[in-house]
Design goal:
mainly alpha
């Protein structure tokens, strides 16, 4: 019986409380807010420039994927790989490579832009 109480005390002391801090886990997420009718030039391209275009732009983009112009981005919207990759969906290469997912509201902006017709605006 004594061993049982010791086990409970040890188990309770190890459980503790843990609170994730989104700002620490996802830097930049605290400054992200949803946008009604996101535009490619004002909302989407800045996200891609900040999160993707270190590797996916220029004359020698990583694995031949460029995300620095509307024409290039739409190719990956149409084949579903952009959304699959940024959502870390099964069957897609999780992006950013070796990093955390983008903040949810940035992903949502991209998805909203796609739902709104993928306009070149």
């Amino acid at each position: 019986m004594k061993a049982y109480f010791i086990f409970i005390i040890v188990a309770l002391s190890m459980s503790g409380c843990y609170y994730d801090n989104a700002a620490l886990l996802y830097p930049g997420s605290e400054n992200c807010s949803p946008v009604a009718n996101p535009s490619f030039s004002a909302d989407i391209l800045p996200i891609l420039n900040a999160k993707c275009n270190n590797c996916h732009s220029g004359t020698s983009p990583s694995v031949g994927i460029r995300l620095d112009s509307y024409t290039e981005v739409v190719k990956y919207v149409n084949d579903k790989s952009l959304v699959g990759s940024i959502n870390h969906a099964s069957g897609y290469s999780a992006m950013p490579k070796g990093g955390f997912k983008m903040p949810t509201c940035e992903i949502q902006k991209i998805q909203d832009w796609i739902i709104d017709g993928t306009l070149n605006n």
